Amino acid sequence: MLSLSMNTLDNIEVDITVELGATTMPIHHLLRMGRGAVIELDAGEHDPLKIYANNTLIARGEVNVEEGQLRVFVTEKVLRHA
Questions:
Q1: Which of 15, 31, 62, 79, by CA, is between 20 and 30 Å from 49?
Q2: What residues does the Flagellar motor switch protein FliN-like C-terminal domain cover (predicted)?
Q3: Any idea where the domains of the chain sit in the sequence?
Q4: For the domain 14-77, what is the CATH superfamily, name and number?
Q5: What tens digit of pLDDT does each residue of 10-26 get?
Q6: Going by DSSP bridges, is the β-strand pair 56-66/16-19 parallel, antiparallel, or unpaired?
Q7: 33-63 burial: b if 16+ Cβ within 10 Å, else e
């Protein structure tokens, strides 16, 4: 049995990505966009966010703004079957 100390786990890096939505557009449209441009996404304001760890979907959640802080709450864990 492998025993890991908490110090070992502190050194593991995980890339977390939160996806609000997505869209596809030609690169020339993207290059013409200026400050304040709006990009329409394929998700509504009440649709769940997707939360990825190292490019693997691990959960869904919702966004909340409180006291000027943007927060993401996990509402559902995505189970992977081995």
A1: 31
A2: 8-78
A3: 14-77
A4: SpoA-like (2.30.330.10)
A5: 888 999 999 999 999 99
A6: unpaired
A7: eeeeeeeeeeeeeeeebbbbeeeeebbbbee
